[in-house]
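From the shared-data thread, chain only:
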Amino acid sequence: MSVMKRVSLIFRAKANKALDKMEDPRETLDYSYQQQVEMLTRVRRGVADVATSRKRVELQMNQLQKQVQTKETQARTALGQGREDLARAALEQKAGVVAQLSSLQDQYRGLQDQEEKLTLASQRLQSKVDAFRTRKETIKATYTAAEAQTRINEAFSGISEEMGDIGLAIQRAEDKTAQMQARAGAIDELLASGALEDHVGGQQDYIQQELDRMGANHEIESELARLRGELPSASEAPRQIESNGGNASTGGNAPGQPGTGDGR
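Structure, as tokens:
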């Protein structure tokens, strides 16, 4: 196969594929139905034209029949008056009219036959057009239903590109939502354990802080009071000092205390 034949074959194959993709069977059926209706219209117009011609010939036949009767009457009248020559002339004219009438009768019968055939063909064609129209609408409805079902199936299966993008967007949104929920749960656990301070309710935190500070101050004051109670009073302090000083000068021990001198 030559290069040009291969290129031509490829081009025709691609063109056929493109045309097949662009073709809509419903439009094709509508176009075919339109062509059949136009053909039926032409047949009916032909029937009307033949009927018109037949009627025209019929009128001419009626006129010729009247002429035949007139010429025969003239021949009778001329013969009654002894004018055989006029009677002969009238009969000769009658013969010519009869010949014309015979020719028109043949035409009339031919037009009748043609009209009957065209009428029968028009009726048959009308039946075929009606049947095609019914089948066309059925096929169109079936194709439309199949097309809708295909789109629904593509939407549910995620075949279509748009549905795929929507699915990815939903997946990303769900992932971010789960991440936010996990973060919020973790923060709640940290706040519950005290690892983090809850700064949301600012006024409530301030009050709690004041209460905690007051409690701490109260404990400090209680501790200071306890320590003050353990210290000697101001009147006892000089005597204790003097007692301590005498013992130091004499080297003796306080009463009730074990000796610490050299008398061991």
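The chain has six helices and no strands.
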